[in-house]
Design a protein that fits this description.
There is one protein chain. By secondary structure, the chain is α+β, with helices and mostly antiparallel strands. It has one domain: Glutaredoxin (3-Layer(aba) Sandwich), CATH 3.40.30. About 30% of the residues lie in helices and about 25% in strands. The protein has a 4-stranded mixed beta sheet. Strand 3 and strand 4 form a beta hairpin. It starts with a strand and ends in a 14-residue tail after the last helix. About 20% of the residues are buried.
Length: about 90
Amino acid sequence: MKPVINIEYCPKCGWMLRAAYFAQEILTTFTEDVHGVMLQPSEVNGRFVVRIDGNEIFDRKQSGRFPETKELKQLIRDVINPEKDLGHSDKKNG
């Protein structure tokens, strides 16, 4: 079964649009690789966490920032389809 990406965000902080933007980017990039993206309003203030099938891949509080779109796509790709080429969003070798 294809993985589900979960984006838990703080609605009180106004981060729903950011979460929705990331969801759109994920679904566009990983159309064939994911079952779906779930947006989950958090009950914890300031939370913005991205998980794949329950496994955390990014936490805003731990990193002290939001992920860049390119970075988030790379983190997801590395878990769900390491061979996938992300084109211009991919890491530069060397």
